[in-house]
Amino acid sequence: MTAIVAETAAGKIQGTLIEGVQAYKSVPYGASTAGANRFLPPKKPMPWAGVRDAIAYTSRAPQAGLRAATRPELANFSGATDSAAETEDCLTLNVWTPGQTGKRPVMVWLHGGAFSYGSANSDRQQGSRLCNRGDVVVVTVNHRLNIFAHLHLAEIWGPEYARSSNAGVLDLVAALEWVRDNISSFGGDPGNVTIFGESGGGGKVSTLMTMPLARGLFHKAIIQSGASVVLGRPERAAKLADIVLKKLGVTRNDLGKLQSLPAEQLLAVVGPATKEHGPPQRPLFDRYAFGPVVDGDVLPRDPFAPDASPLSADIPLLIGDMKNEMTSFYATIDPIWHRTLLESQARDRLFPIAGRHTDTVIDTYRRLYPSDNPAQRLIAATTDSNFRIRSLAVAQRKAAQGKAPVWMYSFEWETPLFAGRLGAPHALDVPFCFDTIDLTNATDLSPGARKVAATMASTWIAFARFGNPNNETIPYWPTYNSSERATLLLDTEPRIQNDLRGEARRLWQGITDTTI
Q1: Same domain flag for 292 and 398
Q2: Residues 257 and 396 in one domain
Q3: H helices of 385-501, where?
């Protein structure tokens, strides 16, 4: 192990070489958020003397809402999980760079997990492959999550806590400020920063695109399977906070108690409070119980409703989804996994989403996919309703601004594992965009899989470098507009298709009463 030392504004750090790339892990960009700092905006880290060790992952945010393991055979599907300690001293980031001199494009990754769980530390998010493939600097960010990041205390404890419901996304701003102030020491260009993220990470990218405090801290954006069209409202967030206090036995006059409770006690009420709070009125667009809130300050408006935020009108956007997002969410349900689901059972699952349009949805997908069984058609319909409809809304509204280009993609490569039951599921794309599929158990590591990984990584790098994803690994990829709706299909042989699955798009457009 070769030790490398780099300089940051808070002090020197010692990293190591991984695959010939300098790696600095768990570098503080903020102070601990425990105790008196709980629920407040992030503060800068305390400077340190000497050289701080940065060769291992040391922390991640306290986790809540993590889905139970899907099926035993899928337990290691995404590779080794993060084993770093859960702690409120979690404002850390990881830096991967080919060298400390130069002026390279910077790619800042925001992890998934529905604003509630996840971390930047897993092997599939290792930045060395992108660095070696495209001579870029990669930064992956940890930040506050769930109740610690998005508990709305503004009406309860006044001005000092007015930003508590957006503390987690303020952490992201602090991380981007760290990049602005420090990345030159790691051979990165603070004037060429791309933010990218998958699932909840895509929601974080969407949120940053409408935050005035983030303006100028990034220059391009990639949203993978996680477009956020609208975000939470203060009234609903305040009701959730009241439920939390009641379950914790904390009064409105007892801030000290709330800040001194063990983190585990706060985490324990997340599930029960969320259940009592109930689902949002617009479940297709408002996704998170503990998530960002449109407060008129940190978030002055929704990211993409009723139109795209003018704040990021000049930011080029790359956006898309997986062909079969919902298979990973349905994997625990035996009739869906084994393809024995009855049409009546599929209808029961669609009704909360489609309501009076349920029969039309069932008839449409039966006609579009006549050789599929009810489980497969349910997966297709809910992938479109839960994911694709939001990405299409974002792409349409962003393109309508006419200020910066938009590119739309669909990840179509299907893993052959488990008799092909998963198809192209949610989050399969993460190790492909990082070119780390061999660090997971998600593929057969075939030449075809490796080719898709090389294509996706090269395309993401081209976008980060030039603001245009076109490169020699793909056919010419036109920008997205409301007439042709050009879409790149990421597969063994990448190709362009206009208005991909257009009839399904029009169906959900009508159901959601949304112009997309």
Answers
A1: no
A2: no
A3: 389-401, 429-433, 447-466
Give me the active site residues, please: 199, 325, 426
- Is 78 a member of any domain? no
Which tokens belong to 504? Answer: 């399904």
Q: Partners of 109 in the beta sheet?
A: 140, 196
Indicate whether 201 and 152 sit together in one domain.
yes
Count of CB atoms within 10 A of residue 363's CB? 10
Nearest C-alpha neighbor of 399 from the set 464, 316, 514: 316
| Successive 10-residue mean pLDDT values, the chain, 516 residues | 87 97 98 96 97 96 76 89 93 98 97 95 97 98 98 90 96 98 98 98 98 98 96 94 95 86 96 90 72 96 96 98 96 95 96 93 97 98 95 97 98 97 97 98 97 98 98 98 97 98 95 66
Structural domains counted in the chain: 2
Structure tokens at 215: 């303006």
**Last residue of some domain: 296, 315, 334?**
315
Beta strands in 121-187 (DSSP E): 137-141
CATH classification of the domain holding 268 = 3.40.50.1820
Same domain, 35 and 153: yes
Backbone angles phi, psi at 385, to 5 degrees: -75, -35
Domain assignment of residue 254, given as a range = 3-62+83-315
Q: 3-class SS at 459?
A: helix
Dihedral angle at the C-alpha atoms of 456, 458, 461, 466, nearest 10 degrees? Answer: -120
Report strand pairing: 85-86 vs 92-97: unpaired
Q: Give the span between the Cα atoms of 93 and 142, in whole angstroms.
A: 6
Q: Both 440 and 405 in a single domain?
A: yes
Q: Are residues 335 and 304 in the same domain?
A: no
Q: Do 304 and 393 touch, CB atoms closer than 8 A? A: yes
Domain assignment of residue 481, yes or no:
yes
Contact 110, 141 (CB under 8 A): yes
Q: For residue 515, what pLDDT is reported?
A: 52
Q: Which of 315, 346, 380 is the last residue of a domain?
A: 315
DSSP class per residue in 89-104: ---EEEEEES-SSS-E
Find the helix packing angle between 502-512 and 358-368, rounded to 10°. 180
The set of residues, in sequence order, having a beta carbon less than 8 Å from that of 243 and lying 6+ positions away, is: 273, 276, 277
